[in-house]
Amino acid sequence: MSATPHASDPAIDPALYLPRMARILEVTPLTAREKYFKVELPEPLGHRPGQFVMLSLLGVGEAPISISCGPRADNMLEMVIRDAGSLTHVLHGLKPGQQVGVRGPFGSGFNLDDFYGKQVLCVVGGLGLVPMRSLIQPILAQLDRFASLTIISGCRSPAEELYRDEVRAWERLGQETGKVRVIRLVDRTQNLPWDGQVGLVTAPLSSLPIDPAQTVVALCGPPVMYKFVLLELTARGLSHAQIFVDLERRMKCGVGKCGHCQINHVYCCQEGPVFRFDQIAHLPEALQ
Amino acid sequence: MSAFFVHKEAVTQWIRHLARSNTVYFPQRAGQSGFRFKPVKETTEIQFDRYQPTLAPPGKKLAPAEEPLFRYRKQGDAAPELVPILDQSPRILAGVRPCDLKGIHLMDRANREGHGDPHYLTRRTHTILIAHDCLQPCDDSCFCDAVGSLGWRDNADLFLTSLEDHILIEVRTGPGETLIQGMNFPVCTDVAAVKSRAEAQRAQPFGRQFHADLARIPAIIASQWQAPVWEKQVERCFSCGSCNLVCPTCYCFDVHDDFDLTDPNAGQRTRTWDGCMLPQFAEVAGGHNFRPNPAARQRHRVKRKFEYLTERFAEGSFCTGCGRCGRQCTTDIDIFNIVNDLIDHAEANS
Fold first, then answer.
1. Least Cα separation, residue A117 to chain B (angstroms)
2. Hey, what domains does chain A have and what are their CATH numbers?
3. Quick one: pLDDT at residue A15?
4. b or e along A214-250 (b: 16 or more beta carbons within 10 Å of the residue's beta carbon)?
5. Nearest CA in chain A to B273
6. A245: three-class secondary structure by DSSP
7. What is the band of A1 on the pLDDT scale with cuts at 50, 70, 90?
8. Which residues 127-166 of chain A have a CB within 8 Å of chain B?
9. What is the ipTM of this complex?
10. What is the pLDDT of residue A3?
11. Where are the domains of chain B?
């Protein structure tokens, strides 16, 4: 006799790995290696700051990409993508009107409730500004709900600066409201014109006029940056519970199955990529 | 549920009978390379007594080495056609040993957590498990009793226990019951007596045993992050990933797209097995590798089996003790020895 199957499993999500198709509306180079993409989805993405999507091109592949815009009611999704591999290289050749696949949003993200009423300090290095913008935008949109916002943003040289005009607009907003401070740094000017500071993002931390007891920090940058920024913040008297870190890992699924993003026992795509630092500070694989 | 006590020859005929209208996998000798789970044919030898662990565990039938996730066809400016590929073909896995039964249970847990994996779970829904007890350790490599797999029964649809020239068939689920309908097998009137007679034959101790209780092992391993054991145990590791390939609870994967060579607008997204012992597994864009050397990767594999997943899913162990990784390792690295070395090192330094 033929076998009868088990009862259908309610856990099955048939569309789990199927992308929704989005149309490219805008592609703008930000630097020699990074391009800004604005795409339109069939419906609002419904994301939190700090979440990510799995972005794909049919026939090429799929990769995790940070969401660069704050939560929004329309169907738009903004990303900044570095030409760093086969998928991102093909993406750099796309034009408005062409389609990309999107799954997500995935991951924990930042919760604005952790930041309301606080002196918010965002420390970013290089591409870290891309996901951090998804937190900065909603803070700026309701600035009266925060004590202040300080952004320390560093990159290697003036040629690698991202969101150049927008960051200066944040700076001007700070001069008007007195609630926003933007510190822009480069490691080296490389003989290019530069209107900011020269140095590492750790440099301004020791003398920053903040009240450690009232401060909440969001941190995103290359792995090497975290250790030194955390040392400075600890020296200022901040506890690990006041610091949120946005981490990067290899990911192939976004849904806690492929195993690539594991940080010790933690799944970066599920419990992260944003973590309150005291929850992962004890994990040896968290930062290196 | 019901139970039957059936002559072995009748059980053999029943398995062949099932194979006429179902795909039935049963462990069969495959040349010099040991046993494999292969489809039963009319001429297949069905025997339960001379078992050797198969090269790959039967659970891999639910998560094949390569499988399509969906097919696509681009349609110009219009939305492409996307068709998920879900395998609803029915199959029976017969002759599954308790270690591999536990392995499938653990794969079920991982695939059902959070976002349920549709490809694994669809296959699982259409898979019936006929398990068979072990009364002797299959060889010197297994340690199923040490990790609590030997007594595993939970997800069997039918559970078989050999006693001399008969087999006790215990029916555990509705789909299992369907398979014996119409067979007119003699009912077993005293299941407990048959089982106790069979279990009296069980070797004691059963296979290799750890130097500490299983319940203590996650905490012991957690305390040994920097133990010299990791380096010592992988001096000869090639990072080939064989241990991942044959593990009943390794399920990590990679994803890539294959386009159709005859139609550049069509193709499929495919996933393939990946393994945490392979050097690039934890490397991110920009080249930083979070587990750059074999010792770090081996530590991750051992901790997944005995600490990380064990605690995440509140299971006694995510290692089933089947012994396959040790048997297949090209340089004789054995996870059992790693764990015992860690226990010894912890005891010596406590």
1. 33
2. 20-106 (2.40.30.10), 112-279 (3.40.50.80)
3. 92
4. ebbbbbbbeeebbeebbebbeebebebebbbbbbbbb
5. A258
6. strand
7. low
8. none
9. 0.91
10. 81
11. 3-348
